[in-house]
Automatic annotation (TrEMBL):
<dbReference type="GO" id="GO:0016758">
    <property type="term" value="F:hexosyltransferase activity"/>
</dbReference>
<keyword id="KW-0812">Transmembrane</keyword>
<feature type="transmembrane region" description="Helical">
    <location>
        <begin position="260"/>
        <end position="280"/>
    </location>
</feature>
<feature type="transmembrane region" description="Helical">
    <location>
        <begin position="152"/>
        <end position="172"/>
    </location>
</feature>
<feature type="transmembrane region" description="Helical">
    <location>
        <begin position="317"/>
        <end position="339"/>
    </location>
</feature>
<feature type="region of interest" description="Disordered">
    <location>
        <begin position="479"/>
        <end position="502"/>
    </location>
</feature>
<keyword id="KW-0472">Membrane</keyword>
<comment type="similarity">
    <text>Belongs to the glycosyltransferase 87 family.</text>
</comment>
<keyword id="KW-1133">Transmembrane helix</keyword>
<feature type="region of interest" description="Disordered">
    <location>
        <begin position="1"/>
        <end position="25"/>
    </location>
</feature>
<dbReference type="InterPro" id="IPR016570">
    <property type="entry name" value="UCP010361"/>
</dbReference>
<feature type="compositionally biased region" description="Basic and acidic residues">
    <location>
        <begin position="492"/>
        <end position="502"/>
    </location>
</feature>
<protein>
    <recommendedName>
        <fullName>DUF2029 domain-containing protein</fullName>
    </recommendedName>
</protein>
<feature type="transmembrane region" description="Helical">
    <location>
        <begin position="385"/>
        <end position="405"/>
    </location>
</feature>
<dbReference type="InterPro" id="IPR018584">
    <property type="entry name" value="GT87"/>
</dbReference>
<dbReference type="Pfam" id="PF09594">
    <property type="entry name" value="GT87"/>
</dbReference>
<keyword id="KW-1003">Cell membrane</keyword>
Length: 502
């Protein structure tokens, strides 16, 4: 005879909310599940086997990453070395093998301390990314031809970046505790697999995803430390402190913000200060290069420059891009203080990074990696996510076809300038589309797919279900509380009219 559950166990089970099943709340997920047997049933026992969501999603992420490596096979087998245009026509370009020789790793030069031959002078990457590159060079066999060493260097980096990809998928899966399957958005994102090994961005993305997980668990100091390390690897994580500031301002969580800021500053200094003190010129190369770099691929600034007889100077573009970014920051702050309900941290994190991408003077195809985890947390809706991903894949193909056109001489194989401008437009419109949807969710919280299943701010940590202490505009007139929705998840099949408007 099976033992009867105790009263305490029964009460705990009744209090603990059930995980959200995407096949019951998302029509696209339900349709896609037909490939593996259809939507999960009401009587299914979830989390009772070894195949937990975290393990499944980590394995899927590794599998998709491996498919991305296969996609680079034409370049690995010769296109990186024997033809400038063939690495573009096969859409398999990567900076990694080229910079092994071009930045002195093959010669054992120490980043930031040893001057490089040529115009670059020093490595133009932040310090923690430079450390990552250097460690990979230590693990690369130093024997054989330069081509053989570059192939090994790419493979070593690919292995290290695969670990970063798995960390990102796991962190996103665990950030929203009731929505673990949203991590599949990251694991299955086609642009993620295609761009993962173009550069070293996954290091900063992994640290940022881990920081978001720590904040969701209320560990503000750990969040700050990880965000400081992420900023030491790439600049964009720094912008997450802006949304966090205004959210903590609205909720009165100044102590937690102070811990996060202090942890970020200390962690960034621990990484950067030694290089700043002993190799300042090499350390500052990343910042001077970013400032002096002209208008480049992927930005609307490039469309303007290539269609103008008198393009703007680099200094003017820097000023205008900075002003546009500041305007976006002000807009996000106003949105935060006036929204009828305090926005979720992931929503504002996505908006601020997207604003930086849209206003910046360059958009490399791997920059999409910055947004994928944030998009999965901000708008975990398969339809909108896939629309955006389709636009990013179009840009991924467009830039390589354009470079093939410009490097193939009189053959003109690839995409001409006008076609490339359409590819840039697809990227810009896709990102703007997702931004508009996220802003709409903030202004109309009943349409937020996370809050419609009973959550407030699962990635918000101390902000989750916190009282508001500073609100502006119409939001200040109702009682100052979050007004959380406490109802059960809404199944899409029962609310088709409402879901159709989402």
């Amino acid at each position: 005879m099976c033992p009867m559950p105790s009263a305490e166990t029964t009460q705990a089970s009744a209090r603990e909310p059930e995980p959200v099943r995407p096949t019951t709340v998302d029509p696209v997920a339900a349709s896609g599940s037909e490939l593996i047997g259809g939507p999960v049933g009401r009587r299914a026992l979830l989390g009772t086997s070894w195949w937990t969501p975290v393990r499944v999603i980590a394995l899927v992420a590794i599998g998709m990453f491996a498919l991305g490596l296969v996609q680079k096979a034409p370049c690995y087998n010769g296109a990186w070395f024997f033809g400038a245009s063939s690495q573009y026509t096969h859409a398999c370009y990567s900076d990694i093998p080229h910079l092994y020789n071009g930045r002195g790793f093959v010669d054992g030069l120490i980043p930031y301390f040893d001057r490089l031959p040529g115009d670059m002078e020093y490595l133009e990457y932040p310090v923690l990314t430079g450390v990552f590159m250097e460690v990979a060079s230590w693990l690369t066999p130093g024997s054989g031809s330069i081509q053989h060493q570059e192939q090994w260097y790419w493979m070593v980096n690919a292995g290290m970046l695969m670990v970063c990809a798995a960390v990102i998928a796991v962190c996103v899966t665990r950030t929203h505790a009731r929505r673990p399957w949203d991590g599949l958005l990251v694991a299955l994102a086609p642009a993620f697999a295609l761009t993962a090994t173009i550069n070293w961005d996954l290091l900063a993305v992994a640290l940022t995803a881990a920081a978001m997980l720590m904040w969701s668990r209320g560990r503000s100091l750990a969040f700050g430390v990880l965000l400081g390390l992420a900023t030491a690897a790439k600049l964009y994580p720094l912008f997450l402190l802006g949304p966090l500031l205004v959210l903590c301002w609205r909720a009165g969580k100044w102590r937690d913000f102070g811990r996060a800021l202090g942890g970020a500053v200390v962690a960034w200094l621990v990484v950067n200060l030694p290089v700043m003190l002993f190799a300042f010129e090499g350390w500052s190369k990343f910042y001077t290069f970013s400032q002096e770099r002209g208008v480049d691929f992927g930005s609307f600034w490039l469309i303007m420059a290539q269609n103008s007889s008198d393009p703007l100077s680099t200094e003017t573009v820097n000023t205008l891009a900075t002003l546009l970014m500041l305007l976006c920051c002000v807009g996000i702050a106003v949105l935060t203080f006036t929204a009828p309900r305090r926005p979720r941290f992931a929503q504002l994190a996505f908006l601020i990074v997207a604003a930086f991408i849209l206003t910046n003077k360059v958009y490399s195809p791997q920059y999409v990696l910055w947004l994928v985890p944030l998009a999965a947390l901000a708008r975990p809706r398969w339809r909108d996510f896939l629309i955006w991903q389709a636009c990013e894949v179009a840009y991924f193909l467009g830039i390589w076809m354009y470079l093939a056109y410009t490097t193939s001489g009189d053959a003109h194989k690839g995409l001409p300038t006008d076609g490339y401008h359409w590819a840039i437009g697809a990227h810009l419109l896709g990102t703007l589309y997702l931004c508009v949807i996220v802003v709409r969710d903030i202004l109309m919280p009943d349409r937020d797919v996370v809050r419609r299943t009973g959550e407030d701010d699962p990635s918000g940590g101390v902000l989750d279900r916190a009282e508001d202490v500073f609100v502006l505009g119409p939001a200040a007139r109702p009682p100052r509380h979050a007004g959380h929705f406490e109802g059960p998840p809404v199944e899409w099949g029962k609310e088709k009219a409402v879901e159709g408007s989402l």
